[in-house]
Amino acid sequence: MALFLFRRLITLMLTLLVAATVVFVVLEILPGDPASVMLGLNAEPDTVAALRAQLGLDQPLTDRFFGWLGGMIVGDFGRSYTYSVPVTELLADRVAITVPLALFAITLSTLIAIPLGVFAARNHNKLGDVGVMGFSQIGVAVPNFWFALLLIILFAVNLGWTPAGGFPGWDAGIGPALVALLLPAIALALPQAAILARITRSSVLEVLREDYVRTARAKGLDRRAALWRHAVPNALIPVVTILGLQISSLLAGTIIIENVFALPGVGRLIFQAIAQRDLITVKSLVVVIAAVVVFVNFLVDLSYAALDPRLRRGGDML
């Protein structure tokens, strides 16, 4: 188990280093100059040069990279070109919206997908199975922003049950805040739930064909008990794997969904920073999101040890 954890920690650190390097290089080679964008097309060359020096853009590429990377390690993400405040301050103001939204969405996705997947597996090739697969096909095919627009038209415009956008703030109370996050969370959750339901169905069906499940049934265990006591727990490893991978899709989806619903979260901040060519903000936020995704997948790896006894005994099947 100790070797398992050590390998995963080394992989986590190397992945973060590679991600930071790729993000920095890709954004640096993009055409255009942040100082020129900020000052406009008619700016004088000496004014642009002075702003480049103020922003540190006149320094060598390697110096900027290692300075930025060293700052990231100690929690200094740099200073926003556009807002003239530390990026950590911008992030702290918006993470209180994006994190609850992502958690809300992944909770809804799990609560929808796993019961539907198990139900479809239990009713294999029957009407219920066909219905769940039809739902999953629609969920996979339709993008989340289209779901978002349909939800706004139905629940906000026609029924008036929820606001069409905006966020009242947590100071207004948990109830109004959660109501404002409900439609965005559903728009994010439905496509992910469709994928997760298919994976759950396939995994449970595969486990149901195993010899130990047939042996349990032969010993007199009824179908429901065999399903929930033997099949579902052993089918969870691929489900948990996909669940961890969906975190990245959810965080990427917030960039669009937060703009559709006018939520002042991290996703909308990234969109605005890209439009304003605020490279230091974009680089730092993308690396933060990458770090969250890598850390979540590290937690998924740890969950394997809870689900698979072989890892607790010192084996490593991954």
UniProtKB/TrEMBL annotation:
Source organism per entry reads: Tistrella mobilis (strain KA081020-065)
PANTHER family for the chain: DIPEPTIDE TRANSPORT SYSTEM PERMEASE PROTEIN DPPB-RELATED (PTHR43163:SF6)
In what residue span(s) does the ABC transmembrane type-1 domain sit? 95-300
Identify the domain of life.
Bacteria
- GO cellular component assignments: plasma membrane
Q: Name the family.
A: Belongs to the binding-protein-dependent transport system permease family.
> Where does this protein reside within or beyond the cell?
Cell membrane
Full protein name:
Binding-protein-dependent transport systems inner membrane component
Identify the Gene3D superfamilies for this entry: MetI-like
> What is the protein's membrane topology class?
Multi-pass membrane protein
GO terms assigned for molecular function:
dipeptide transmembrane transporter activity
The record's listing under Pfam families reads:
BPD_transp_1, BPD_transp_1_N
Q: Any coiled-coil ranges, and where?
A: none
Q: Which UniProt keywords apply?
A: Cell membrane, Membrane, Transmembrane, Transmembrane helix, Transport
Q: Does Transmembrane show up as a keyword for this record?
A: yes
Q: What is its main location?
A: membrane
Q: Which InterPro entries match?
A: BPD_transp_1_N (IPR045621), MetI-like (IPR000515), MetI-like_sf (IPR035906)
Q: Where are the transmembrane segments?
A: 9-30, 95-120, 132-157, 177-199, 235-257, 285-307
